[in-house]
Amino acid sequence: MRTDDLLMCNHSAGYFDHIQDSLIGKDHCVLCAEPVDVKKKDSRKVETFGFEDRLQEVCFARGYDDWAMEVQGRLESCIDLPAEVAVYHSSCHARFCCCQSKARHVVVGRPVKTTAQQALDRLCGHLETYCDNNEMYTLDGLRTVMMEWGYRDQDAYGTRSIKNKLKERYGEHM
Ligand SMILES: [Zn+2]
Q1: Cβ 156 vs Cβ 116: under 8 Å
Q2: Closest CA to 124 of 66, 85, 95, 165
Q3: Which residues are close to ligand 1, an ion, with C-beta < 5 A?
Q4: pLDDT tens for residues 30-63?
Q5: Cβ contact 24:35 at 8 Å
């Protein structure tokens, strides 16, 4: 019967959804559950068993807040991380371990440019143009440059974010 077929399909679809939810996807960040592009510098593979213990410690340190609970749920759903070949964003790891809030990654193909991102893009353009002069900038200095362009304080990234964003873009060559 048609209806039975339909029910069976629905059932199996739901079943696989459930399985997917309970496992860490091979290409999704353990921490934020968003896709990890392994070609990007920001991507990391979980290679040590200590990683999971460390995350558990951080969950405790975070006082089991929303993000910690989410991560813990994912950790509990797999037996050992390296065997699952789990991946994560190094930026998420840094944020998670520093008790910061979760960052949203820009989804490829649908770039969301915030004012802060626009300011940063302009800053990078500026750096790429003037870098040859061997001018040295401090992070505060970079922020001041953005302020001089008329960006408001709350519209620009903080110095720590600027540092991370620049690292993401230029690697260690700074
Ligand atoms: Zn992530």
Answers
A1: yes
A2: 165
A3: 29, 31-32, 89, 92
A4: 899 888 998 999 999 888 878 888 999 999 999 9
A5: no
